Prior knowledge:
six-stranded mixed β-sheet
Amino acid sequence: xxxxxxxxxxxxxxxxxxxxxxxxxxxxxxxxxxxxxxxxxxxxxxxxxxxxxxxxxxxxxxxxxxxxxxxxxxxxxxxxxxxxxxxxxxxxxxxxxxxxxxxxxxxxxxxxxxxxxxxxxxxxxxxxxxxxxxxxxxxxxxxxxxxxxxxxxxxxxxxxxxxxxxxxxxxxxxxxxxxxxxxxxxxxxxxxxxxxxxxxxxxxxxx
Length: 207
């Protein structure tokens, strides 16, 4: 199993700002979303063998809280489970839009232009990354570091961000690039992908 977990609500999610690589903390709601994520992992009896995350604390903290509430924090103590952090799994860099309120940005640049920057596959915002660029960094990292563990039969948790998780879905052929713009990934809700013979068999949000 591969569990994709978007971090819980961050302070800039709450303020409706473009966050990108800025290292903002979780809100209290975000922490509770991570608690719920862990409870869902526990309810579904999923034992996690390896954890991957970005280098940003909102994703790291989400993973830590989720694992604790899944009853798996004892694995940290035994050092059998380590969180592997890598900037390849970071959120998309929004360039000149980082820190700006999304509504104000739409008023300044035009709603249609901002929609293109946010949702097109290969058009980046000024001095930022397109989703295609994110796919180009997530895909080799997945192939080199995560895929071999799935092939070995491990259950993997990836705590990351909306766009890096979208990139992983494209890499797994769950969605095509032209479909991904309409896919919303909720904060703090684990998406469980089941593999059979090293291929995606099915996927669903845990309940």
